[in-house]
Structures are given as C-alpha cells and as structure tokens.
Amino acid sequence: MSNEKKGITVKIDADLHAEIRQYVESKGITMAQFIELAVDNELHPKFNNNMEENNMGKMRTLAFQVDEELFQKVKKTARITERCSTPYQVKRERNSTRKSSQLTNRS
Q: What is the torsion angle, in degrees rounded to the nearest 10, for the CA atoms of residue 4, residue 38, residue 21 and residue 17?
C-alpha cells in the first residue's frame, strides 16, 4: 500500500456504527484503521471458503485424530464415507450422495 491517504465517507446503520465503535475501542485501534483492515480483507481475502472456486493444487492436507463421537458428527455433516481419503474422493462422494438423495426425493 502507498503512504498517500484518501478519504471515504459512508452512512451506516447506527447500531452497526455502535458495534464497530465498541470493537475498535476494545482493540485499541482507530475507526480508520478498522475500516482499512475491513476493506483490505474484503478485497484481498486471506482464505477463500468457496471450495468450488479453489484450485485444488493450492490446497494442503491437515490430518489429526479425534474421538469417535466427533468423527461421526463430522462424517455425517460432510456426508462422506470412511473409504474417502483424498479431497477428490470426498468431493465425488458428496456429489454421489446428493444425486442419490435427489433421485429418492423425486420418487
């Protein structure tokens, strides 16, 4: 970023303004610093949550152990089976599950 500064004036909801004011005071930053961070994060996100838009070549795998109860919750939520071990297999399994449930719902 350059050192030159430009102004932006916007009108926002009073409740949102109060929430932001409380946040910046608790963090010890200025409103300008907060807005600059928010705009920068919106224009240049650090992480893209949309898996469809992600290039799988840039993805990394993170593996860790969890107890059986948590594993079953994640498995159910993600709609995957134990035979899935790669992101491609998980995506393929999800698509297969969606297609079969759509066929079931049409019956």
A: 110
